[in-house]
Amino acid sequence: MSAFPVIPAEFPRPRAGGVDVLVVAGEHSGDQHAAEMVRALAASRPGLRVAAFGGPALREAGAQLLLDMTAFSAVGIVEVVSAYPFYRRLFAAMRAWTLRWRPALVVLVDYPGLNLRLASELRRAGLSRQGGGETAVIQYVSPQLWAWKPRRRFPMARDLDAVGTIFPFETACYADTSLPATFVGHPFVDASHVPPVRHDPEGPVLLLPGSRPKPVRKIFPSLVEAFARYRRHDPRRRALVLHTGGAVHSELYRLLAEYGDAAKGVDLRPVGEGQAAGCAALVSSGTMSLSVALAGIPGAVVYRANPFTWFLGRNVLARGVDRLGIANILLKREAWPEFLQTACEPEALAARLRACVGAPEPRERALRDAAELREMLSARPGSTPAEWAASFLP
What sign results for the dihedral spanned by CA atoms 52, 56, 61, 65? Predict the structure, then answer.
C-alpha cells in the first residue's frame, strides 16, 4: 500500500468558514471536467466557496483541494480489491467531513464506484435532499450504464437529485426512472477547452497508454515494440508519450530502460505542458482517445487488462455494446480500429501506423469524423455544466 497516502485524522477546515459547493472527482479526467465547471460557476457567482476531493486542475480553478485523489485512483476489479482497506478509510473520512461542513451542493464527478456510494450514505445520514436534508447531490458525468451495470440507474434515482450527461444518448438510460437527466455537453468541445493534442503530419507518433500505473504496465510494452518495428522503415520518426506524472512517469521510465535500444526515439512529456503534436496515435481506450478523435488524428484504440478483469468485464457488458473507444461508440462504427487484449500486439499496431503516417486518406477520414463528433457533443443553449449545477444552489 505504499502507493497510497496516509489518510489524515481530519481534512482541512473550509476556507472562509464554510463551503457552498463540494466537488468529488477521483480521476484525472474528472478533475479536468470539474475544473472547467468550477471556473464558469465562480465567474457567474463571485465569492462562491468551493472545496474539492479532486486534483491539481480543480486547485488551479480556485477550489480548496482537501486531498489529491488523482494520485492514486485504481481501476479494474483486481486492482480495486487490492486497495480496499485504503478506500474504506478514505470513504469514512470524506463522509465525516461532508456531514460536518454541510455544503449546499455536492457535485459528484464520474468515479461511480466511490461517488454513488457516497450519495447513498449522504441520503442515509439525512444530509441530502433525497434523505430529507437541504444539500443537493448531483452526478456530473453519468456512469456508462449503456455498457456496464445498467441497473445502477435505480439506486441513483433513489439517492441523487439529478444527473448531467456528457453524451446525448445517455439521457434515455434514465427514462424509466424518476431521476432528471440533462445532456450538458461534453467539456472537450467547449470553447474554453484547450485540446491536449493536435495533428501535425511532420510530428512524432503519439503513444498514449493511459493515466494509471497498472494499465500502463499492461499496454505500454506493446506500444514500444510496435513503434520499434514501425521505425525500421521510418528511422527519423520519433514517438512522444504523454503522462500524468508521479507513479505513471516512474513506470514509463522503468519500462523504457528495460527496452534499451528498442526504445530509441521515444520521448516522455507530462500532460499539460502545451499541446502535443502528432502524425498518428496509438491510444488507450480512455478519455484521451476522444481527444485524439476530436483532433482528427488517425490511429488506433488499444487496451489490455488483467485477464480476470477482462474476462469479467466482457461478460457483463450491456448487450449491443461491442466497442471500447467512445468515438467509435458515438459514431456507431469502428472509425478508429480497436486492438484489444490479445489483439493488442506489436506487429498489428506497427502495420496500422504504416497505414496512417503520411497517407492522406486516413487523415481526411479522421477530420470528417471529428466534425461529426463535435456537432454531436456540443451543449444545448442554457444547459452548460455550470448553468445546470447553478440551478441547484440557493
Answer: positive
Alpha carbon distance 183, 128 (integer Å): 23
* Strand partners for 65: 52
What residue spans define the domains of the chain? 15-185+379-390, 197-377
pLDDT in tens, 99-138: 999 999 999 999 998 999 999 999 999 999 999 999 999 9
DSSP structure class, residue 135: B
Cβ burial of 254 (10 Å; 0-12, 13-18, 19+) is: exposed
Predicted TM-score of the model (pTM): 0.81
CA–CA dist 213, 215 (Å, integer): 6
Q: How many CB atoms lie within 10 A of CB 358?
A: 14
- Structure-block grid coordinates of residue 4: 497510497
**Architecture of the domain whose range is 15-185+379-390:** 3-Layer(aba) Sandwich (3.40)
Q: Which fold has domain 197-377?
A: Rossmann fold (3.40.50)
